[in-house]
Amino acid sequence: MRKGAHLIIGILAFCGYAFLLDLLRETTRELFLVGLFAVITGSLMPDILEAPTSWRHRGLFHSRRVLKCMVGTFGITAAACVLPSSLIPHTFLIYGLSCFALGYLFHLLADATTKRGLPE
Prior knowledge:
By secondary structure, the protein is an all-alpha fold. The chain has 4 helices and no strands.
């Protein structure tokens, strides 16, 4: 998949996530920008770590194992983001990590739909 497609998918997923989170807990513009930067970074990171032009593309960083790790990371950090700010000492860090994991997760899900799929 091309870089632009991964960016669009990641940003769309982020918009849905940011909207749902804003319904549950009011978010600031700064928090939104941190999340947007993090999801863009996460959406591009697998191809930065394993360049699509290389013979090693879709190795470890494009694997189902990393997909499972990203699902877990996103689930835990997204659940933590719903908690009140007084319970989360580093809100920006947790939210940024959840958005990064979301972008990475959707990159891998998009690659899984291609003919080559994801390796174990």
